[in-house]
Amino acid sequence: MSIKFSKSADRRSDILNGLADHVLAHGLIASSLRALAKAAGTSDRMLLYYFKDKSEIIAATVEVVAARMVLHMNDMASPQRLPLDALVRHLAAVLSDPLFRPYMRLWLEIAGMAARDDPFYTQVGEVIGRGFLTWGAAQIAEENEGQHIREAAKLLIMIEGIVFLNSIGLNDVVQTAIGNPA
Amino acid sequence: MSIKFSKSADRRSDILNGLADHVLAHGLIASSLRALAKAAGTSDRMLLYYFKDKSEIIAATVEVVAARMVLHMNDMASPQRLPLDALVRHLAAVLSDPLFRPYMRLWLEIAGMAARDDPFYTQVGEVIGRGFLTWGAAQIAEENEGQHIREAAKLLIMIEGIVFLNSIGLNDVVQTAIGNPA
DNA sequence: ACATTAATGTAGCGAGCGCTACAAGATATA
DNA sequence: TATATCTTGTAGCGCTCGCTACATTAATGT
């Protein structure tokens, strides 16, 4: 008569996966407790049973999303280190892949909330951003150490700029900038 | 008849200036009708008397903000055209000026809303972004035309990337990338 | 078997949201 | 002065929000 549910820790992580799906698909602004609960197949009441309050729900969900993205990024790392220009082109192509679009949209949404001085999102943004920086640095072919650090920083700037422009519909500008040299 | 019309037009533009102040200071998310009305020294009731609905209020306000920023940008244009690298450094410094921070925060907030497929903010973002592109192109010293277009696009990418990183607290990364060469 | 705790449903509170109905003062026009 | 129109205040509607109180059922330990 009763459906057999997983144990509570499993249940919680099942819920979190549903929350991550929803947030990736619909964004934070569409993530009321009631909407999240429905996406996770539970009730708002139960979300607040498993989590202290909404900010804890969002924090845990963003963590899950970030973990997923790390997996995807490792999947798509180029087999060998590339010079900066080639790497930018490679990453620009990858980030416009449908698989990554939801992450990029969420990423921009987080940055937007960090932009007004929301301390929570500022910190989330900084942690993820520095993760990108480290990951990117490992992809760049450059011997000189000082120059290597500088190029990693430039890479991050350009990647974030590309994400930004794509989100406001200026994909053509991105192509103009990084398309194959004439 | 035209007299009373222009009086109410003045009142409307007074209100719009107050709205622009508020939106720049506190962002769109803190801009409920009641909060906006208070900032403009009127009531929510009157806002909906002068404007059809909230989206019209926001559209008109963003227009005012954009017009103000154009003025500031013209003030701060460098006296002569610069090569790309120098221009990026110049603009990065200018955009972190306290005068421009509110614009950049709002700009990122708009991009964040465009990132989920909000058609209104996507269009606002595209118009403003292309304005930036044109403005930036006029600042770049580069003879070859094809190269000039490409450099303008690169400039826009880097500027938006810098705005992005600044907003999530990665100012140091920006400095690493564009600081004076060692 | 019984007691305890864990898990979940139901219902709703208080606040804020965009927006509107209604009436009344202010002003212009006849 | 009388009337019509422009402008504004008061009040509140219907909704969603995060969150909670209370009750009940399911599982577990003794």
Task: Explain what this protein looks like in three dimensions.
2 copies of one chain form a homodimer. Chain A is elongated. Chain A is mainly α and 182 residues long. Chain A is built from 9 helices and no strands. Chain A has helices spanning 8-26, 33-39, 44-50, 54-76, 84-95, 101-115, 119-137, 145-167, 171-178. Chains A and B meet through α6, α7, α8 and α9 of A and α6, α7, α8 and α9 of B. Chain B binds a DNA duplex (30 and 30 nucleotides) through residues 1, 3-4, 8, 11, 32-34, 42-46, 48-49, 53-54.
Question: How would you sum up this structure in a few lines?
Answer:
The structure is a homodimer of 182-residue chains. The first copy, chain A, is mainly alpha-helical and 182 residues long.
Produce the secondary structure layout:
The structure is a homodimer of 182-residue chains.
Chain A: H1 8-26, H2 33-39, H3 44-50, H4 54-76, H5 84-95, H6 101-115, H7 119-137, H8 145-167, H9 171-178
Helix pairs in contact in A: 1-4, 2-3, 5-8, 6-7, 7-8
Chain B binds a DNA duplex (30 and 30 nucleotides) through helix 1 and helix 3.
